[in-house]
Automatic annotation (TrEMBL):
InterPro entries according to UniProt: Auxin_biosynth/cation_transpt, FAD/NAD-bd_sf
Keywords tagged on the record: Oxidoreductase
The protein, known as: Putative flavoprotein involved in K+ transport
MF term (GO), any: monooxygenase activity
Pfam families: Pyr_redox_3 (PF13738)
Protein's UniProt keywords contain Glycoprotein: no
Length: 347
């Protein structure tokens, strides 16, 4: 039985306790504002902790730090996903941020001039809402997957090679997650790799320095992205022996159809597989926002730098929201500072 608590009133509700939500919380705390952070996960950091086991960030520790608390790692070391998750948990505890875990937001609507935020356990009346729950909410899987009779998963469900069945496996997707998962699997399975275009490969290190170090040195990380750059596929960043491992996968062009255990490619060739893994990314999901006039369009919100046309509603974690690094922890916290300032000055 769910026990409902009487409606509470608060100035700010932040949805999501990831890098953007925690950063926004810190800036509101510094300004002595009244706020809470709602997160659907069991613990702070679980959005990273629940990703595949071999995941390491591209960003060195120096570029993964949130405001006013360093990571307990050498600045040049790239954290594992568990190290980052533990750091986020430590961050929330260290600054005593009011994070309410296991509390999923089910709906946001208007209540007069304020917002009504309905969650798993309570209803909250808030003057302003900052949506910072990230993009890993709704996995994108192509429609042709419905025609498969063989098992398949999305990369968001992948943890270790034990997650995969059979012997001959197709990986679909041309991004960094696809490449890192392929590196996990090539020692155990016959891997085929389907991409729409040939992936661009780029070294993560240049002259012994991480590319983010160079980006900061030449002031590129803080600059807005050019419109022609937005929407283009990110290169696959090479580190350690990644290039050697992904070369073991047999390259395939774009998939144009499927049926049973067969997949047809754009070159009209057909292959049989025992398992498919989709590393095809995520789409935004704002279905919980039930407000007349809300854009419900991530691209429009990006162009508005995360400021909705609905007064008092703000967004964080949108790629290229304000800079080339908005999708990174480094840029996300700068976006959080901007949104908090905008929200506070809107009174």
């Amino acid at each position: 039985m769910i026990l409902w608590i009487s409606m509470k009133e608060i100035d700010y509700v932040i949805i999501g306790a990831g890098q953007c939500g925690l950063s926004a919380g810190m800036y509101l705390q510094k300004a002595k504002e009244d706020f809470i952070i709602l997160d659907q996960h069991l613990e702070v950091g679980d959005s990273w902790r629940n990703r595949f086991e071999s995941l390491k960030l591209f960003s060195p520790a120096a570029y993964c730090q949130l405001p006013d608390l360093k990571m307990a790692l050498p600045s040049s070391v790239r954290p594992t996903k568990n190290q980052l998750a533990d750091y986020f948990s430590r961050y929330a505890s260290h600054f005593d941020l009011p994070v309410h875990t296991k509390n999923r937001v089910t709906e946001i609507s208007k209540l007069g001039e304020a917002f009504l935020v309905k969650t798993t356990f309570e209803e909250i009346k808030a003057k302003k809402v900052i949506v910072a729950n990230g993009l890993c909410q709704k996995p994108f899987i192509p429609e042709w997957a419905d025609n498969l009779s063989i098992p398949y998963i999305h990369s968001g469900q992948y943890r270790t090679p034990i997650s995969v069945k059979g012997k001959k496996v197709l990986i679909v997707g041309g991004g960094n997650s696809a490449a890192q998962i392929i590196a996990d699997l090539t020692n155990y399975f016959e891997i085929h790799w389907s991409t729409i275009k040939k992936p661009k490969l780029r070294s993560l290190s240049v002259f012994g320095k991480n590319i983010l170090w160079w980006g900061e040195k030449f002031n590129k990380l803080k600059k807005p992205a050019k419109e022609k750059r937005i929407g283009k596929a990110e290169p696959i960043y090479l580190f350690d022996d990644l290039k050697k491992k992904i070369k073991k996968a047999k390259r395939q062009p774009e998939v144009i159809g499927a049926g049973s255990n067969q997949v047809t490619f754009s070159n009209q060739k057909t292959e049989q597989y025992e398992f498919v893994l989709f590393a095809t990314g995520f789409t935004s999901d704002y279905s919980f926002i039930n407000i007349e006039g809300f854009e419900n369009d991530m691209e429009m919100l990006r162009k508005q730098q995360g400021v909705s046309s609905v007064s008092g509603l703000y967004f964080l974690g949108i790629p290229f929201q304000r800079s080339r690094s908005s999708h990174l922890i480094y840029g996300g916290q700068r976006d959080a500072a901007f949104i908090v300032e905008i929200a506070r000055n809107a009174d």
